[in-house]
Amino acid sequence: MSKAYVKINVIAGKEKAVRKLLLAEDGVLSADLTSGDQDIIAVVEASSYDAILDLVLNKIRAIEGVTGTVTNLVLV
User: Fold this and answer.
1) What secondary structure, in 3-state letters, does 23-74 show?
2) pLDDT digits (tens, 9 = 90+) for 60-70
3) What distance in Å separates the CA atoms of residue 20 and residue 66, rounded to the nearest whole number?
4) Residues near 75 by beta carbon (within 8 Å), at least 6 away in sequence
C-alpha cells in the first residue's frame, strides 16, 4: 500500500463540508482541519502511487470548495 499526506486549501466557510466529503471517499483515512498554510490535512492510502495521484486529481480536487492541494508521498 502507498500512503500520502494531502494538504488541501478550501474556500473560506466550506472547510467542514469539504472535510465531510473527503471522509466519504475510499482511500481517505483521515481529514483534519488545521491552521497554517493549509485548511485541511488528509491522510490517504491506495494500492500504488499512481492510484493516489488518481484519487487526488480526480476525486479530491473535484470536491466543490477545494482550491488547491499539495501531496506529500510517504516513502517507506
Assistant:
1) HCCCCEEEEEECCCCCCEEEEEEECCHHHHHHHHHHHHCCCCCEEEEEEEEC
2) 999 999 999 99
3) 12
4) none
> What is the spatial distance between Cα 73 and Cα 13, in angstroms, rounded to a whole number?
28
- Quote the pTM value: 0.95
**How many domains does the chain fold into?**
1
Strand partners of residue 28: 44
Amino acid at 58: N
C-alpha cell at 71: 501531496
Give the range of the structural domain holding residue 7, as residue numbers without chain letter: 2-73
**Spatial contact of 22 and 40, defined as CB atoms under 8 Å apart:** yes
Output the domain CATH number for residue 60. Answer: 3.30.70.920
**Continuous segment of H or E residues that includes residue 16:** helix 15-23
